[in-house]
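Sequence in, structure out. Go.
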Amino acid sequence: MKLRQVTIAAFLACTSMPSFAQNFASIEEMARTPVITLRISESLRTPPDQASLSISTESKAPTAAAALEINKTKTERLIAAIRAAGVAEKDIQTQGVNISPDYRYDQVNGRGSRRMAGYSASNTVRIKTRRIDRLSNLLDALAAAGADRIYGPNFEIADRAPLRFEARKRAMARGAAEASEYAANAGFARVRLLSVQEGVSDRALDIVVTGSRSFASAPPPPPPPMAERGGDGIELGQLETGVMLTLQYRMER
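Output:
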């Protein structure tokens, strides 16, 4: 019985030796060419070049049909003013039409009471304008055309691709420089890029890209010049467009 136990123990010890040797070899190999993982963020801040707004009209009448008809006329007048202000058809979209009871609240003998006075109809339209140098004039035109509520502006950048390209190029250059610095400090001659993972940092939809090389191309076009602005109470500020890269390099002698 004891002999069998010793034999089994010896057999297990023998079978585990190749695995240990293999792991040791793997560690040795990693030590000869270690891998660096860097996380690099780069962003550019630029003025917006377009803005979106939501505009609502409201109408009240004794019946639902009358409220809708009045609101239809009011909304058509508003949309005509939007078109006259230079907003393209593709940038005008109805967000919603609503009809609901219109209640009045009164005090009767010291107690509150509610009574139905008719119906309220509303129509909300979302627009996008690329003439943000004339945004104040657009707001004046909307108010004059009968807009009851205006939400916005929400500033945007129409095409972020050139900005992301520039941010990506800067992040790759930074990553290569920092990886080379680590390699030099550790006594290695150079680094080789193994993989790239990317996520955007401008609150748009995140994307993930994997690859092993980067390709150079023409630099992005400069942002359009900003128009002269006066004291109209609207400040454009700047928006941030950036990328976050996870870069993996192998050190080589």
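Check: The two ends are 56 Å apart (CA to CA). The chain has two domains: 33-48+159-220+235-253, 50-156.
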